[in-house]
Amino acid sequence: NSFHTTALCSPTRVALKSGRNHHTGNMGFITEMATGFPGATGEVPNRVAPLAEILRLNGYSTAAFGKWHETAVWETSVSGPFDRWPTQQGFDKFYGFIGGEANQWAPYLHDGVAQVEIPNDPNYTLNTDLANQAVAWLKFQKAMTPDKPLFIYYAPGAVHAPHHVPPEWIAKWKGRFDGGWDKLREETLARQIKMGIVPPGTKLSPKPEAIKDWDTLSADEKRLFARQAEVFAAFLEQTDYEIGRVVQALQDIGQLDNTLIFYIAGDNGTSSEGGANGMFNEMTYFNGVTEKLEDMVKLMDQWGGPETYPHMAAGWAVALDSPFQWTKQVASDFGGTRVGMVAHWPKGIKAKGEIRSQFSHVIDIAPTVLEAAGLPEPKVVKGTPQVPMEGTSLVYTFDDAKAKERHTTQYFEIAGNRAIYHEGWFARTIHRAPWEAEPRRALEDDIWELYDTRADVSLINDLAAANPAKLKEMQAVFLEEAGKHNVLPIDDRVFERLNGALVGRPDLMGPRTSITVAEGMAGMMESTFINVKNKSKTITADIVVPENGAHGVILAQAGRFGGWALYAKDGVPAYDYNFLGLKSTTIAGSQPLTAGKHTLRFDFAYDGGGPGKGGLGTLFVDDAKVAEGRIEQTQAGLFSADETTDVGIDLGTPVVEAIGAEARSRFTGRIPKVTVEVK
Fold first, then answer.
1. How far apart are CA 85 and CA 10, in angstroms?
2. Residue 12: which H helix or E strand, with range?
3. Would you give the DSSP letter of residue 11?
4. Burial class (CB in 10 A: 0-12, 13-18, 19+), 465
5. Is the per-residue pLDDT at 189 higher than 90?
6. How confident is the model at residue 498 (pLDDT cuts 50, 70, 90)?
7. Which residues contact 283 (CB under 8 A, 6 or more apart)?
8. How much is the pLDDT for 437?
9. How remote is the C-alpha of 70 from its chain's centroid?
10. First to last CA, the chain
11. Element (H or E) spanning 366, and its range?
């Protein structure tokens, strides 16, 4: 009940799988927001060998299923390099998604480094697919090599946004959250005290000022927000069920008692990135667009289904992080960092159903596994001298609830939210809330607080004024740890980091202003394709129309929740710009294309004057103008976290609903060449 993460996904995953702090692994923030600063480059160095590779080299079969989100974004194309893909980071088998999140209905998956074609099955969900893959791998391993030990990293995309789950799961939770988030906080704390998870007398920390009291909300707000929580809870329950199937597979092959399982309930606290009202389309968050409550209420019945890409209101995140105040991204509060963790190993742990309260952190897992497996920590891996693991094995706690705490000092830092734990004391500063676009103040002006966690679990009683000497001591410890682990300089930029040119991040396209692609090229992730946002562009496509006419996608980027496409519908050429799933603009010709060779050209003249502006679009067929129209608004920051750019097909969800996605969108003719130029 005192287990901690870094408060964010990529940093936690690198720390978990390496036993080193996230800045030591160069993952100071998520991979899409890597910078040129040491500790935040997004490239896991060879001197930080992952646990999986250590186990593999010691005779283990290894597999990873689900979310990865640790490969530098400029290394995610078919050109690699593949050094930081799962199959060269210690895993014999990888089945999952490389980016930070996935559409549960239409994910972009890899098996190893090969793209996976999602089955045309109306009942498909990623959660079930991942469990099926893990169960099959487990049984296959024990059938072929029954004496060979195995290691699995099982990381479902849940319950990260988008919150997607079949309706039968949602129905089970109807009405369960009508009482609101304030009541949920009280009920949760009462359960925690009863179960011994927090001490008797623990109080709820005050909510952040931005979170409204439930009883002040309108009827529409309550209806919408309750539905959001029902979907989230259903998604979590479905995930738990699928994890249960993987555990059952261990039982089926007779290995459950002999397997050490760590069940970690998240790589950060619950996400409050949904802001005050939640979002029907999470991508609005990354584009600085605020969705209207009345528009989301109209979509309530579809919430959680394929037509939505949703996130919930921040009030639920605060409630689900009870008894703490803050949430994901806030590395300076236990609401962002402290998550439930269960260790299960019947043959290796005598204690059953007990609680351990020694301070622990994700960097402790790798050294725990090595000690449990009886393996030494290597000093050199594949010829590269290693940074020693910075975590502390937890084996000492397994059979001694009162064992003296060994992990006594731990820094925390994410985008300026920073803290230090040291021998029971906790000093911190809240630099920025997840729903705030800018920091609250300059780094040097931050207000530091001081807590004694041994008497104040929920961090309520700030002792900074009463004990300034202790606070000064703790701040000095923070700076010492920050200097030791590549945390400095503190970088509090957030959305600016999306623009790699501003932050010194490599770009696969480099200074190029054009790219030429052709049929057969699909699955290009956004960070590896030329950036068309906030600028003028020209798309020139050489196509061959068959006798039965042209139909389908010529070139598309992203999908239903934001993107664009050049295509033909029933022979007629057209271009669509889909603005965040909120508004779609079609610029289409009037005559079908004749059979034979044609050159289509679409020019977009950007208005300028800042990001996210509109412009004039003009469509040409063989140099003759056939259509023109205004696109009033464009996406400034991000099209999608998990959709791709595709030639001759639209993978994932469709940009143009009338054309469809996957096989339905496949172009009927040939596409020898498409050039995209930006200026």
1. 14
2. helix 9-18
3. H
4. exposed
5. yes
6. confident
7. 309, 561, 562, 580, 581, 635, 638, 639, 640, 641
8. 86
9. 10
10. 54
11. helix 365-373
Q: Is the per-residue pLDDT at 496 higher than 90?
A: no
What is the C-alpha to C-alpha distance for residues 524 and 627, in angstroms, rounded to an integer? 28
Block residue for tokens 């990293």: 153
Query: Which position has the token pair 């709820």?
Result: 204
Query: Rounded to whole angstroms, how far apart are CA atoms 173 and 171?
Result: 5
Q: Which of 392-401, 488-497, 530-539 has the lowest mean pLDDT?
A: 488-497
Angle 219-252/126-144 helices, nearest 10 degrees?
10
Decide: helix, strand or coil at residue 227.
Answer: helix
Report d(CA 7, CA 430) in Å as an integer. Answer: 13
3-state secondary structure of 472: helix
CB atoms within 10 A of CB 381: 17
- Other Cβ atoms less than 10 A from the Cβ of 338: the count is 19
The one-character DSSP state at 665 is: G
Q: Region 74-87: what's the mean pLDDT?
A: 96
What is the C-alpha separation between 183 and 303, in angstroms, rounded?
A: 23
- Other Cβ atoms less than 10 A from the Cβ of 469: the count is 7
Chain-wide mean pLDDT for the chain? Answer: 97
Render 16-59 in DSSP notation, one character per residue. Answer: HHHSS-TTTTT-SS-GGG--SSTT-SS---TTS--HHHHHHHTT
The token duo for 413 is: 């830092």
What is the three-class DSSP state of 272? coil
> Which candidate, 276, 408, 415, places its Cα nearest to that of 332?
415
Taking alpha carbons only, the member of 100, 96, 65, 70 closest to residue 82 is 70
pLDDT tens, 601-612? 999 999 999 999
Are 315 and 211 contacting, i.e. CB atoms less than 8 angstroms apart? yes
The alpha-carbon radius of gyration of the chain (Å, integer) is: 26
- Residue 679 vs residues 134, 190, 534: alpha-carbon distances, Å: 46, 59, 10
Q: Which amino acid is at 389?
A: M
| pLDDT tier for residue 101 given thresholds of 50, 70 and 90 | very high
**pLDDT at residue 11 tops 90:** yes
Sign, CA torsion 490/493/497/503? negative
Percentage of residues in the chain with pLDDT exceeding 90?
97
Which amino acid, 563?
G
Which amino acid belongs to residue 121? D
Q: Residue 29: CA atoms inside 13 Å, Cβ hemisphere, count?
A: 26
Rounded Cα gap, residues 103 and 335, in angstroms: 26
Query: Which three-class secondary structure state does DSSP give residue 87?
Result: helix
* Residue 362 structure tokens: 């994700």
Banded pLDDT at 573 (limits 50, 70, 90): very high
**Confidence grade of residue 271 (pLDDT, cut at 50, 70, 90):** very high
Rounded Cα–Cα distance for residues 70 and 313 (Å): 27
Instruction: Dig out the tokens for 503 from the structure.
Output: 């932050």
Tell me if 477 sits within 8 A of 422, measured CB to CB.
yes
Q: What is the dihedral of CA 189, 190, 194, 197, to 10 degrees?
A: 0
